[in-house]
Amino acid sequence: MSKTQAKNPQPEHRLDLLREIWKVLKHDKTALFGFIFILGIVAVAILAPIISPYGYSEQHILDSFQGPNTSFFLGTDEFGRDLFSRIIWGSRPALLVGVLSVLVSIGIGVPIGLLAGYKMGWVDRVVSWWVDVALSFPSILLGLMIVILLGPGIVNVALAIGISHVAQYVRLARGPTMAIRNLDFVMASKALGATDLRIAFGHILPNIVGPIVIMGTLSIAGAIRMEASLSFLGFGVTPPTPSWGNLIRDGVDNILQSPWMALFPGLALTFSVLAFNMVGDSLRDMFDPRAGLGKKKG
Amino acid sequence: MKIKGLLIAMIFCLILVPLKAGAQTALLALGVADIGTLDPHFANKIGEVPIIRMVYQSLLRHPPGEIDVAKLQPSLATQWEVGDDKLTWTFHLRKGVKWHEGYGELTAEDVKFSIDRIINPDVGSPARKALAAVDSISVVDPYTVQIKTKQPYPVLPAMMVEERFGYIISKKAAEKLDKDIKYHPVGTGPFMFEAYKPRESFTLKANPDYWGDKPKLEKVEVSFMPDNSTRELALRNGEVHAINIPAKQEWIDRLKKAGFTVNLTSPANMFVLHFNLTKKPMDNKKVRMALCHAISRDILVQFLGKDVAKSEVSPLPSGYVGYTDNVVRYPYDVAKAKKFLVDAGHKDGFKLSMNISNSNIYLPPMQVIQEMWKKIGVDLELKVVDHPTYHKLIRKDVNPVVIYGAYRYPLTGTRYFTQFYHSDSIVGKETAIINFSHYGEALPGVDKYIDDARFELDVTKQIRLWEAAQKQIVEDCVAFPLFTRKYAMAKSKNFDQGFEQKSYSFYQVTEKSRIK
User: Which 236-265 residues of chain B touch chain A by CB within 8 A?
Assistant: First the structure.
């Protein structure tokens, strides 16, 4: 982090970050594997209509509760719907909610954190107090409350997950902002008459993009898990749209009849979360000097 | 050391379970989170009714385990007869029947109090309208009551049975316990209240003063287990003797294969789609016809299982007095359905949104219908809500389509037609029951047939009127009958009820029942 801060925070900064990420991926096989896996999920989500052998809601009542076989690769559910196709389509809400909710968290949390860190004083005290309260509250519970308030549906779920994780990003943005606001180049801009807004978004923000990206990657994994949890509890997408969470729920309801109905979507969820965590962890190691050192030694 | 302790604890638990089951205690598990009320004049849910049947009794009763109006037996009344005026019914009570917990002997006062309580609008029992024919009830002597009806009403004895409109409660207990009677039932039956743990269980013990044979069971414990898989595991592990199960073929096959007795019972609910005539585009008959032609009842029956469901074509369930299948059919025909949509001006189909209960009796069949409607371009959005919310919402007239399952004792036309198709029963009205389609107002309807049939004494003429009503309702296409779906339950072989369970939504436990 200190390396990026020391450099002149101008346009090449973005390129810099991408280059650094690429460097990590090249050296860290785990991260590369995770990254390729993520690309695979994205491809599956985009190509869902082409690669899924059946429509996600297409029913074959006479073939209900089939085990994996040649016509239904991973078997069928209660309605005789092809589980393989449903898992493929289920990647869409997972990714959509994962990315969207993180953007919501960043969109709300980072400006608040910047404001608090830059302004300091009572604004900072109020924000910090609120962040402490929000962070001590279980986010799944908060998300559940918000989604009950907004009603089910994919966008609402993304909003709920996003809002319930805002506090983390406030804290993330606030700390570095406080450190950077007193550095020479910020002082210089100030002396040249730059407005607060310009300093906050033009000078400070680019310097904290790194940590935000890492946190974002790691949060996507958490958001996918939370989407699955909310869907499992019945607050996600409406039937017949599949999501991994409601597929697992259907599976649990019929676990004594056909265990694979819960197993396969569970595996899809596990591997996807794992992939995002692999990439996120490596990025954190790179940006966090202490963790990075530890890793090299190990 | 720690592991050893854990092992000992586990073995201890394992020993405890068979110990508990070894005594003469019947352990039942029902698929509910809790009970709402055990007031016998109100309760009608799956978790409540089986408990009430053990505690409370009625003047007459059906043979244990079955509903058959032709086989009424004496219970709290030993004899009954109707006077020459065809209006005055006299019931002679059994002598020496004791209320639980020392509330004294059953007398005619208790019977009068109970019937008055049911028909009193201030009490608000949902069963009130079932006894609409009752004019007054009077005490002749402590062991004799007379019920006067407004018109000749030959089915009155069939109403004095173990249903919401027939249970006899203790006047003294009701006055003393007041609201507590909701969770502290006091009856005359073979089992009496012992303990109630909210959201957990309800325990009954044998009534030592029971007027019939001494109950063979010492205790009956009803546990509340809303999760289907949990209940099945409890049965398989021998933690309980009997459970209710979803009425689906795979459950039945699976549990039979595992060596349990599965009972499928009827009369059972007939499920019907009611189109709300006040919501666009449901006001257009062509649209309704298109939706009907797009549904295959055969596929629905296949989905639920052939042992469980049978398709229905008339707004009165098959087997009811007055039933006819001589009605217009809307056979499964996607091409025809599409053509009707084009005629109705919906060439590209339309979007429809409805609330639906998350209950497994409503949501899965509706998902099958959703997929069928998709084939004719009708995009149905299912907004899943919990079961009580669904019941609230459909009574607030928010749904364009309502799916509803019902059976109405005593299996004749009167109550079925009145509740679903009479204009007085339209949801939102003060006299509302469950007319979801606004039939009788949005369309002329069949009020006249229903009213005439209610007062018709000639059974043949009454049946003709009900047949006419069925034809008209189907002709107007306001409701689409789907299927009748039996109740399903499973028990272990060592639980001997003492009779065969043919009716009701759950196993009945009587003084004859025992653990082998």
Answer: 250-251, 254
**Cis peptide bond prior to B142, omega within 30° of 0:** no
CA distance A233 to A243: 12
Element (H, E) at B267: strand B261-275
Overall fold of domain B266-486:
Dipeptide-binding Protein; domain 3 (3.10.105)
Q: Which of A78, A239, A256 sits opposite B232 (nearest CB)?
A: A256
Q: Which domains does chain A have, with CATH numbers?
A: 12-297 (1.10.3720.10)
B355 CA: distance to closest CA in chain A (Å):
11
Interface touch B250/A79, C-beta < 8 Å: no
Angle, to 10 degrees, between the axis of helix B249-257 and the axis of helix B228-236? 20
Q: Does A191 touch chain B (CB under 8 A)?
A: no
Asked if B206 and B191 count as a contact pair (C-beta separation under 8 A), the reply is yes
Location of each CATH 3.10.105.10 domain in chain B = 266-486
Q: Mean pLDDT for chain B?
A: 92
Number of Cβ within a 10 Å radius of residue B92: 18
* Yes or no, beta carbons of A252 and B374 under 8 Å apart: no
Cα angle A276, A281, A285; round to 5: 150
Strand segments (E) across B77-200: 77-82, 88-93, 134-141, 144-149, 167-168, 191-197
A256 and B229: CB-CB below 8 Å?
yes
Residue B306 has pLDDT above 50, yes or no: yes
Yes or no: say if B262 and B489 are a contact pair by the CB < 8 Å rule: yes
Nearest partner of A229 among A164, A286, A284, judged by Cα:
A164
pTM score, two decimals?
Answer: 0.86
The answer to whether the CB atoms of B384 and A256 lie below 8 A apart is no
Between A294 and B153, the more confident residue is: B153
Q: Using CB atoms, which residue from A78, A238, A255 is nearest to B364?
A: A78
| Cβ pair A58:B358 closer than 8 A | no
- pLDDT, tens digit, for every residue of B26-64? 999 999 999 999 999 999 888 899 999 999 999 999 999
CA distance B436 to B396: 9
Nearest to A239 among B228, B232, B382 (CB): B382
Averaged pLDDT, B246-253:
94
Which one of B228, B302, B363 has the shortest CB-CB distance to A61?
B302
Fold type of domain B21-241+492-515:
D-Maltodextrin-Binding Protein; domain 2 (3.40.190)
Tell me which chain B residues have a C-beta less than 8 angstroms from the C-beta of A233.
Answer: none
Q: What separation in angstroms does the CA of A16 have from each of A19, A25, A281, B385, B468?
A: 5, 14, 19, 50, 82
Asked if the model's pLDDT at residue A293 lies above 70, the reply is no
ipTM: 0.81
The predicted-structure confidence for A108-150, as pLDDT tens digits, reads as follows: 999 999 989 888 889 999 999 999 998 898 888 888 999 889 8
* Residues A194-228: tens digit of each pLDDT: 888 888 888 888 888 888 888 898 899 999 999 99
pLDDT of res. A272: 94
pLDDT band at B4; cut points 50, 70, 90: low
Closest residue of B to A55, CA-based? Answer: B371
Residue A162 exposure: Cα atoms within 13 Å on the Cβ side: 21
Q: Count Cα neighbours of A123 within 13 Å in the Cβ-side half-sphere.
A: 12
Task: Check if the beta carbon of residue B104 is closer than 8 Å to that of residue B172.
Answer: yes
Q: How many CB atoms lie within 10 A of CB A58?
A: 17
Residue A231 CA neighbour count, 13 Å, CB half:
34
Locate CATH 3.40.190.10 in chain B: 21-241+492-515
